[in-house]
Every structure is written in C-alpha cells, then in structure tokens.
Amino acid sequence: MSIPDHVAIIMDGNGRWARERMMPRYYGHRAGVKALKQIVKYAGDIGIRMLTVYAFSTENWKRPAQEVKSLMQLMEQVFSVELDELAANGVRVRIIGDRGTVSPKQQRIWEIAEERTKDNDRLLLNVAFNYGGRMEIVSAARAIAEAVVLGRLKPQDITEELFTQYLYTKGLDDPDLIIRTGGELRISNFLLWQGAYSEWYFTDTLWPDFGIEEFEKALASFRQRERRFGGISDK
Ligand code: FPP
To answer: In this predicted model, which residue has the larger pLDDT, 82 or 193?
Structure first.
C-alpha cells in the first residue's frame, strides 16, 4: 500500500502558534489556511484522491465571538477568493456539516463553491464546517426514523450500508489515515463513524508548521502499518 486514498486532518494548534508569536489567534488561523493550501496542492500532486479537513466543529461556537467571526471570514475567503486557484488545480470542494444553523449567506457561498467545482476530479476536498460526529449520527438516526414512520423503510432494512447513506459523507470512502497535529491525543468528535478502522497519526507539530516534510512523515508511517480491519495478520 503506497498512497492512502483518503486522508483526513484535524488541523490543531493555530492558537498556540499565534501565541508563541505574541499575535492574536486569528493570525494563527490565517497561517493555518496557508498551510492548508500547500497540503491540498501536494495531496493532489501525489495522487491522494480525497482530503477531509476539520475547519470548524459544532463546539467551536463556544469560542470568543471575535474568533468565531474571524474563522467565518476565513472560510468565506477560502470559498470565494481562493476558489479560482482550487478550481484551476482540479479540486472539487464539498462541505460536510450542519448547514441548517449557518447564515443564508454562508449556505449560498458553499452552494456556489460546490456547484462551480463539481466537474473537477483530481482531488476531492471535504471541508468539515459546523461539523460534529455525534450530531451527524443523531441526524442520520432521525432521518431513518422518519422514513420508518412514513413506511418507506422497515427496521430490518437498517444496516451499516444504509446508515452510511444518511451521513454527510454519503458516497465517500472511509478515511484510510487521520492526522492530528498540535499534540493532543483525542478524536474531538471528528468522523466518529467513518474513522472506525482508520489509521491514526499524531504529531506535536502545530498546524501552521505542518509542511510537506511533515506530511511525508505521516505518509511514511502509514505505509508501515498493517491494516487488518478486525481480521488476522496474513504475515
Ligand atoms: C484548531 O486550532 C483549529 C481550528 C479550530 C480551525 C482550523 C481552521 C483553519 C486552518 C482555517 C480555516 C480553513 C477553512 C478551510 C475554512 P486551535 O485554535 O484549537 O489551536 P490551539 O489548540 O493552539 O488553541
């Protein structure tokens, strides 16, 4: 196994990176976008087909209003100013997350970005925004329950495959590798269902410092893993 098909990233450490420079947190997030651009480009170059990044969690609303505002502005920038460059690089973007609780303006920005890049097939960039893994599972369960009540589904129709069709990630393969930067060793409500058999890679490197060399280290570690998906070793 050489290159993982689907890589997911928890981009942690922007705040600390800024603090080390005695700068406000948004400065770290801005540097985080720069790091992301470099990784997106490189991922496409080496043949990764899908990249999923955790940009804003359902819990991030608890941050100070100023920081939430700056994250929203950065997101809008990525999906407007940066969109031409993404599109020119053959990137297709998709948002995974709860669309119902963001502003109509943001919903529109996402729709336009998805529509404009829908024919690109070099790299699929899934941006997890207003995303929470538990919420995703609850909303799938709710939609399935409604279908049962309406007589469209029977309880015995509910299988893992069917459940997957009700998640934000419908149609995507599960991530092969999940990277978390910033030194914390936890999942933080990211891809709870989809990550069941993913390989994890943790690094202390703060996200704005996560460059190609660091990414290559994660990929080298992945190459050494023996994936068994609950089965036994064939060595
Ligand atoms: C975690 O660092 C990072 C985030 C909550 C936001 C990640 C967002 C970006 C890289 C930019 C936005 C990108 C898009 C595509 C819209 P932290 O703030 O928790 O850092 P800390 O743990 O050091 O405080």
So the answer is: 193
Ligand 1 binding pocket mutation candidate from 14, 61, 85, 93 (most atoms within 8 A of CB): 14
CA separation for the pair 43, 39 (Å, rounded): 6
Three-class SS of residue 128?
strand
Can you tell me which atom of ligand 1 is nearest the CA of 19?
23
Q: Which domains does the chain carry?
A: 6-132+174-223 (3.40.1180.10)
CA-based torsion, 76, 82, 83, 86: positive or negative: negative
For 12-63, write each residue's pLDDT tens digit.
999 999 999 999 999 999 999 999 999 999 999 999 999 999 999 999 999 9
3 pLDDT more than 80: yes
Answer whether residue 218 shows pLDDT above 80. Answer: yes
End-to-end Cα distance, the chain: 15
Q: What is the mean pLDDT of residues 101-127?
A: 95
Catalytic residues: 12, 60
> Which DSSP helix (H) or strand (E) runs through 53?
strand 50-57
What CA–CA distances, in Å, run from 65 to 26, 71, 100, 120?
A: 12, 10, 20, 35
Count Cβ neighbours within 10 Å for each residue of 87-113 and write b for 16 or more, e otherwise.
bebebbbbbbbbeeebeeebeebbeeb
Q: What is the pLDDT of residue 75?
A: 93
What is the three-class DSSP state of 186? coil
